[in-house]
Design brief:
The structure holds two protein chains of two kinds. Chain A is α/β, with parallel strands linked by helices. Helix content of chain A is 35%, strand content 18%. Chain A is built from 21 helices and 23 strands. In chain A, 54% of the residues are buried. Chain B is 30% helix and 19% strand. The chains are: A alpha/beta, B alpha/beta.
Chain lengths: 607, 315
């Protein structure tokens, strides 16, 4: 039986081997130590730092790359596995949807070199479009899903995942969540052990999935799952922790520390893998208690398995199926179950000081693009990226947003359905390369009457500034061939392609009007680098000549965080001021100021 | 207005509070602010310091949207054994806020009886606070008063760290001023703080950050001795005589050019079926006169009628 309590003093003894790492860094470290040769990913919060971290290890040890999308990344990792090397592929939860096509057959093929998928879910939807539970993919594909509970386990389980992958001939999912990926704690690390290259395994019956081969492989997948159940039943990473209480808790992954925070001495079955689940282990634990509670974030996967064995089990009745867990959520469930006393309730004063949603940065080139989009009066299909924020006041420039690359397809459908307004799709450069190109070809092929605004800010901005095939650099910052968007778009069959500098508001308005007037597919490339990445742009700030400002609020319609109300009033309305620390001098506010009272700041203000 | 005095101690206790992390319960420090202010640096310094002491440390934050000017928060927990990476409501021993409204937002996370609140009076007003543009409309930003804060927490400090850092020549050192303030309520020794801060700030800024740290540290000591300042409350917003904007549109002169429609900041004009400019959302009109000034045909006149008589007349 494992003792979860470690002597804190032990942490001091060998400082070299103990490092403060985030969950993502721990996964990267473990993969490097496990001898990974190829790693690929498309950036996506909260998984992005795994590849960024892997890229800090020597290039002689491993090839790490940004792929154009998650399916390509998984195909790349599978290719490396075919060739006999250990490979890793990282993605956010919705990335696995993109990669699912390859993944569902990868499970039949199994591996040659160990193949690990790190899938980072986002319970609570901190920065995503949904909060799907990717553990269900393990069930769907009969693939083991390891659920680490902290950075140390993220490290341990990732290393183990490579061994399991090769031992059981299966891809393995290491499932993280935002909380784990972005929490830093101490990890005991080792050094890299080179995995012996296995060479390509020439075995078409395993590597080429024609129906005859696939039928046989499906049976071996089912056999494999049974063996994995036995493995997890006897492995020490499945822990039954004894305790004082008359009830038992079943939990896994990031819920475990919440349970321990609230119930330090309860009996707990801590599962290392949330798929496959060993009936024997569940039976043994559940039959020992009158009441069994399952604490799991999102879907009731473990709960349903226990219920299927005929045990009375409580889970989603007490702990919500939506949203991120926390000690409070777990405590509230236990209070509802009558197992904990209700916490003392204060006559709580709830301050509501200000609404502060994320906004487009000061000087963001998307701002003017969406000023033009909104003024055009079009129906706008949006996409995934910083510019999705344009849905909020005051830009309010987006009508729909679904998934990566959906904008163009959505626009085609709207136009074909007879939408009375002109239809515009807005899509960022990285998103366009990810999943926009097939949709653009579809639009041309089906002769849709839409305008596409390609918001080219020369970076994958939303996830913190990652390179992509349009930036001319690789993940490691080395020079790379650069996509020529105009040539690419023309090659797709688009006849109307134009580039515009989105800092020129009048030109952007004009170009978008032309694009909308064009019958057929028109692509307008609004071209301006992101103000944060790769270089933080800071020009001379502007200032408002307050005495001239008539407080019309035209500039406030940009939603620029550098603009705010001053303490001066004009006819009962607030005059505007500019925060010189935030203003980067993009001049958009000066362009919309109808009475021309915004100028470059005098040197006194600049300092 | 709204400038808070440099020395404000709300409910300062005379005895310094020091949380002893050697106790079984972990020490919980919540660091909050707005994207780009340096919240993460503060939490990294603290986490590193606690780890050097041999404590288990968990430091948790959510990245992603944070860069876009949104709320940023970092949970740091340390002690002999730390389970949850996040601090539950009402469980924070210390709340360090780099921005005034963010500090207020997270107050319910503080321990009611023993929690220490250290807050920069820096105000970062987001565009959303300036949404209501009707004549005389107030800014919707942190209307909570210092008295409400003082009544809520046991020990609170409102420190103008940004101004102090500005005076040192680098506004960005405000977070280190707050680290200096934080150093007075945690158990770690001064040389260790200084060593860790020096290790984490950019080399070129070591001198200014060391000065900032000391300023923050000394400020708390001073604040504990000074009586609370009376002028801490923000000044009241000036009151304006309310008026009702009214548009007089001469249909015969309008030639449907749409200039007023396109440039109205409130987007409350449109062309009607006869393609004549019409006010469709009179409740949104602020009377800014842009349409009047921009109309090439002098077809629009804006009247600012006193509100009360107009209301009575309508009834």
């Amino acid at each position: 039986m494992h003792t979860p309590w470690q002597a804190a003093a032990a942490l001091k003894s060998d400082a070299k081997q103990h490092r403060p790492l985030t969950g993502n860094e721990a996964i990267a470290r473990a993969a490097w130590e496990a001898g990974v040769r190829v790693a690929a990913a498309y950036p996506g919060t909260p998984s992005t730092e795994i590849l960024e971290s892997l890229a800090t290890y020597p290039s002689e040890d491993l090839h790490a790359q940004w792929s154009t999308n998650e399916k390509v990344a998984l195909d790349v990792a599978m290719g490396a596995s075919f060739a006999g090397s250990r490979a890793l592929c990282a993605m956010k939860h919705v990335g696995l949807n993109v990669a699912a096509d390859a993944f569902m057959t990868a499970t039949y093929i199994g591996v040659n070199g160990g193949l690990v998928l790190v899938v980072c879910d986002d319970p609570g939807i901190h920065s995503s479009q949904n909060e799907q539970d990717s553990r269900l993919y393990g069930q769907l594909a009969s693939v083991p899903v390891l659920e680490p509970s902290d950075a140390q386990e993220a490290y341990d389980f990732t290393k183990l995942a490579f061994d399991l992958s090769e031992q059981f001939d299966t891809p393995v999912i290491v499932r993280s969540t935002t909380r784990l990926s972005h929490t830093r704690s101490t990890v005991t690390v080792e050094e890299r052990v080179e995995a012996a290259p296995r060479g390509f395994l020439e075995k078409p019956s395993k590597n080429v999935m024609i129906p005859a081969h696939a039928r046989a492989r499906h049976l071996s997948v089912l056999e494999r799952e049974a063996k994995l159940k036995d493995y997890f039943a006897t492995s020490p990473i499945t822990r039954m922790e004894h305790g004082d209480d008359s009830f038992g808790i079943v939990t896994a992954g990031t819920c475990y520390p919440y349970v321990r925070e609230v119930l330090p001495h309860a009996p707990v079955l801590k599962l290392a893998a949330s798929w496959p689940l060993s009936e024997a282990v569940l039976r043994e634990f559940c039959s020992a208690f009158e009441r069994v509670l399952v604490v799991e974030e999102l879907e009731p996967i473990i709960e349903k398995e226990i219920a299927a064995l005929g045990f009375k089990v409580e889970g989603k009745r007490l702990f919500p199926r939506a949203g991120e867990f926390s000690p409070e959520v777990v405590r509230a469930g236990l209070v509802q179950a009558g197992l904990l006393p209700a916490p003392p309730s204060y006559n709580a004063w709830v301050p509501e000081p200000v609404v502060r949603p994320p906004v487009l940065c000061a000087g963001c080139p998307h701002t003017s693009s969406f000023m033009a989009v909104r003024a055009s009066g079009a129906r706008v299909a949006g996409d995934i990226g910083c510019y999705t924020l344009a849905v909020l006041d005051p830009l309010r420039g987006i009508d729909t947003c679904v998934a990566m690359g959906s904008s163009i397809g959505n626009a085609i459908g709207m136009a074909k359905a007879g939408e009375t307004k002109p239809v515009v799709a807005t899509i960022g450069d990285s998103t366009f390369l990810h999943a926009g190109i097939p949709a653009l070809i579809d639009a041309v092929y089906n002769q849709a009457n839409i305008a596409v605004m390609l918001l080219d800010n020369h970076i994958t901005a939303m996830t913190g500034g990652q390179e992509h095939p349009g930036t001319g650099k690789t993940l490691r910052g080395e020079p790379a061939p650069q996509v020529d968007y105009e040539a690419l778009i023309k090659a797709c069959g688009v006849k109307w392609v134009k580039k515009v500098d989105s800092y020129d508001l009048a030109a952007t308005h004009q170009a978008l009007r032309e694009a909308i007037a064009y019958r057929g597919v028109a692509v307008l490339i609004s071209n301006r680098p992101c103000v944060l990445d790769p270089i933080k742009i800071k020009g001379p700030p502007l200032e408002v000549i307050t005495s001239q400002c008539t407080a019309c609020q035209s500039c406030m319609n940009l939603g620029c965080p550098a603009l705010t109300w001053s303490d001066e009033w004009f006819e009962g309305r607030h005059r505007v001021k500019i925060d010189p620390a935030l203003c980067i001098g993009c001049t958009l506010c000066a362009q919309v100021c109808t009475i021309d009272c915004i100028k470059i700041a005098s040197p006194a203000v600049t300092q | 207005m709204n400038e808070q005095s440099n020395v404000v101690a709300l409910n300062a206790t005379s005895e310094p509070t020091a949380f002893n992390a050697a106790l079984a319960e972990p020490t919980n420090v919540l660091i909050v602010g707005v994207g780009g202010q340096g919240v993460i640096l503060v939490s990294k310094v603290l986490a590193s310091l606690a780890q050097a002491h041999g404590y288990e440390v968990k430091q948790s934050e959510v990245h992603g949207m944070a860069k876009r000017g949104g709320t940023v928060f970092s949970h740091v927990r340390f002690g002999p054994r730390v389970w949850s990476p996040t601090i539950a409501k009402g469980e924070a021993d210390v709340l360090i806020a780099l921005e005034w409204a963010e500090g207020l937002r997270w107050l319910p996370h503080l321990k009611r009886d023993t929690g220490v609140f250290i807050c920069d009076t820096k105000r970062i007003v987001p565009p959303f606070a300036c949404r209501s543009r009707r004549p005389g409309a107030p800014m919707r930003y942190a209307t909570e008063t210092a008295e409400q804060v003082a009544a809520y927490v046991s020990e609170a400090y409102a420190i103008d760290a940004t101004k102090m850092a500005e005076e040192l020549g680098n506004e960005r050192a405000a977070n280190v001023v707050l680290l200096g303030a934080l150093s007075t309520v945690l158990e770690f020794a001064l040389p260790e703080w200084e060593k860790t801060v020096t290790a984490f700030v950019p080399k070129k800024t070591i001198a200014v950050n060391s000065a900032a740290f000391e300023l923050g540290r000394n400020w708390i000591a001073e604040a504990k001795n000074e009586p609370p300042s009376a002028d801490a409350a923000p000044a009241a917003a000036p009151v304006h005589a309310p008026y009702q904007p009214r548009l007089e549109i001469t249909d015969a002169w309008c030639k449907s050019c749409e200039i007023c429609v396109k440039l109205c900041p409130e987007r409350c004009l449109t062309l009607n079926a006869d393609r004549i400019a019409t006010l469709v959302a009179p409740e949104k009109c602020t009377g800014c006169r842009l349409c009047e000034w921009l109309c090439p045909d002098f077809a629009i006149r804006v009247h600012l009628d006193p509100e009360a008589p107009a209301m009575e007349a309508a009834q």
